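Backbone shape codes
____________________
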Amino acid sequence: HVQLVESGGGSVQVEGSLRLSCVASGDTISRYCMGWFRQIPDKEREGVAGIESDGSTSYADSVKGRYTISKDNAKNTLYLQMNSLKPEDTAVYYCAADSGAKYWGQGTQVTVS
């Protein structure tokens, strides 16, 4: 099955930008519905953005117009461009691959202050 490794998190000022990457191995992401989720302590993990195998995308209302999900099938990599970041975007961000079974990366911390 696919293995996922996120990177690109860090600390950024309000209104700043970050780009997260998720490199996949063991399988090709073109076979999966891919997505980004985030989680803060004591809260449920929430979906942020998703991209289907055909390239169609969807976003949570809280990030529409600020976040962009994309993928490069040749590099087997998923991306999340995050602009105009707000303190409430602070969370651990996870990438996920869904083919019926869901696979998760280890997460990357994003802190906005």
Summary: The CA atoms of residues 4 and 105 lie 5 Å apart. The longest strand covers residues 18-25. The two ends are 37 Å apart (CA to CA). The mean pLDDT is 97.
